[in-house]
Amino acid sequence: MTMADGKPNFRVVERLKIKIGDAKNLGKGHSTLRDGHCTITLDQEEIFRTATIEKAIDPFWGEEFEFEIPRRFRYLGVCVYERDRPLGRVTVRRDQLTSFNDKDHWFPLRPLNVESEVQGKIHIEIEFCESRGRLNVRLNEACELAITNGNCDPFADVTVRYTNDKTETQRTKVKKKTNSPVFDEAFAFTLPGLGGIPKQHLSGQSPTADWAELIVTLYHEISGSNTVFLGQVIIPLQGRPVSAWYFLQPRNRKSSLREDQSSNYPSVGSLRLKIHYTADHVLPSHNYERLKHLLMNSHSVQPITASTVYLLGEIIPNKIDSAQPLVRILLHHGQIVQTIRSLAIWEISKVTDANTIFRGNSMVSKMMDESMHISGMRYLHETLRPPIERLLAERRPCEIDPNRVKESTVIEHNFANLQIYVEDVIKAITTSALKCPTVMCQLFHTLKEVAITFFPENKEIKYSVVSGFIFLRFFAPAILGPRLFDLTKEQIDSQTNRTLTLVSKTIQSLGNLVCSRSNFKEEYMQRMIQAVYTEQNITAVRQFLEIISASAGPAQCTQDTPVTLKEGFLRKITTWMLTKRAQGRNKFGRKNFKQRYFKLTTRDLSYAKQKGKESLCTITLSDILAVERLQQESFNKNNMFQIIQPERILYIQANNCVEEKEWVDLLTKMCFSNSKRLTLYHPAAFINGTWLCCKSNIERTTGCQEVSTSVDHIQTSSVDVDRELSRIHALCVAHIDRFDSVLKACECKAVYPGDRLCLPILIEDPKTTFITLSTLREIIYTLEQEHRTVLRTIARETKYGSKQAPIGDDNYLLLAGRKDLSAHHQQKVW
């Protein structure tokens, strides 16, 4: 086990995928929901928002969100709104999330109550003096408090309750504009009946009541007597001194809010959610070397059905669970093409009908889907964003189904509108061949060559294999759900959703027709298919398919128009170095932040006052020396990062922690190969003549901290290989019983060969399969032992009541070490 400063070298990477389905029984007396939408929150911080559904009795959103969680949190919340009025909320505690994994679950919606869900923690010291006659309470500091309407001006009420139910309250000073206040205030209390008696005479006196409990309540001051409840801590006073951190709790409750405590909160409806939460416990890289080596050699194992990659795909029930980490690892190490080729050769060798190649739920199909998603996302945005933006901006009616229109006379007009949008998409796709990522071209070329080898008489197979992936599994799903593929942030109404569905259907059908496969399912679509199935379009599509699968990669093309990668409103402030200040620039302060619309392209970063307005400033990517997070103490603001340039630093505040991470990660990746990239930077700002991080008063001094490193070896995605290997380890542990059943099957088949045996998976070579599985199981066992050792060490060394493990909530590190409640410790499998 690697140790650093006496502590385990260990990190936890959390990821959440949540699908918001439909709602029912929303409120009393409401026949329909007007303009309803949902928000996703971590604690009280909004992270995502769904589209707005208009006038629905039981609204259906059907939106899925997936993101890495960049900070510690206590609650996942999903709130349903009617316009700006909250109707109800689903709240799930962090330690309960895994119990709902991969299940469609109807959650009761509870009335929204700001006092029922809080965040943050506080450090409290308690000391008894003069034979318990006096009590000293000190509030040192609090952190991670909730922010209300962009502000947090906290203060605390310190209340002592006596056994006679009387109370005494004292108050701290208000700390302005910070959600991590340092109070550093002490308060003294005396038992009833002992007030006014000198200290030296207290021991002989009898109080009229005893200590009961200490209640510390935090508020945000709005103005005068208007306050917002931030949370409270209730501590029984038992005569023992205390110095500890506490999680803030809901009002008048000593335990955290649980989703299943329905009796306290009447339901106002139900919301269907599908949640998948993972917390990967990642060890240092050297622990995963054997597992990585086993995966890297999969393509050379004969038969391929005895390889690690194939066996993981067959043994783990949901193939996409194993395909996602495997593809990322193989892409990172340049092994994806060889591995998919080996799997494809075996799969096609078992197919008798060329029309069914890669059409099933096979490992090749899942790995191709994931490969295109990772390596082709930038290409997808560059290709589809312009026609999708036009469609969303114009919002022309395109319904051509006679059963869906009130007047049949509008069908001709709608047909013309739909044809325009379809032709836009076809042109965008067929002219994008030279921009297709190299790794996708390599994969298409490999699959085409393998298919031609097995079906040499089929002249259309060279098109059908490629179009089955690029049209049916890449472009068509993105057109159908542009928000899921980050093609737009706009909310999409029902009419536009229907238009996108019709365009997606047409593109799928065109991809099939080019390969001489017709599948008209709806009569009303036949005319549209015939309209776009022109000689010009067929030629263009086939040329496109030929180019993207012709060789290992198309020739590089120059991009005349830069591609937009990310855009949105952020708040910024700029500090110029000495050379610029001499030209009249004033120094900046904490109040000088301005909201600007930022736009990042493949060429530069720019910002303007509003979207579509002329840029106020444009920064070429080659001039960005580093992009790093900024310490909160610099401006007393959260979610801040800095863009360092040769002559100035741009300080930017994002709207939430997830958005901050997205901007930092994307900017870092785009600028990582800059020749002038810094090696050291300042993690805090230069304010009032001093760097707040290292206290140097020299503005141009070298940074005091190393810049972030990157593991990005793929054109469009950074890969944390250790995290992906840890994901495979967790999947293997969760399904170790299936591994054991296959091992037993190998032994049986080796003794009793033949096809009559009932086997859990196909076993072509029992001996080689047994060797692979035994080696993999031994590696997983070693990793599991290492994990448990680390968790026990952390549990042993972490003090309950410390800042890392405050009192009041179940601490997952302590629980994992002491009670084996982590997801991959629920079964005693070894």
UniProtKB/TrEMBL annotation:
Gene Ontology annotations of biological process type: intracellular signal transduction
Which keywords does this Swiss-Prot/TrEMBL entry list?
GTPase activation, Metal-binding, Repeat, Zinc, Zinc-finger
Q: Does the keyword Repeat apply?
A: yes
The Ras-GAP domain, residue ranges: 318-512
Annotated C2 domain residues: 1-114, 118-250
- Molecular-function GO term, any one: zinc ion binding
Domain of life where this protein originates: Eukaryota
Q: Taking every annotated instance into account, which residue ranges of this chain make up the domain PH? A: 563-672
A Pfam short name: BTK
User: What PANTHER family does this protein map onto?
Assistant: GTPASE-ACTIVATING PROTEIN, RAS GTPASE-ACTIVATING PROTEINS
From the Swiss-Prot or TrEMBL record, give the protein name.
Ras GTPase-activating protein,C2 domain,PH domain-like,Pleckstrin homology domain,Ras GTPase
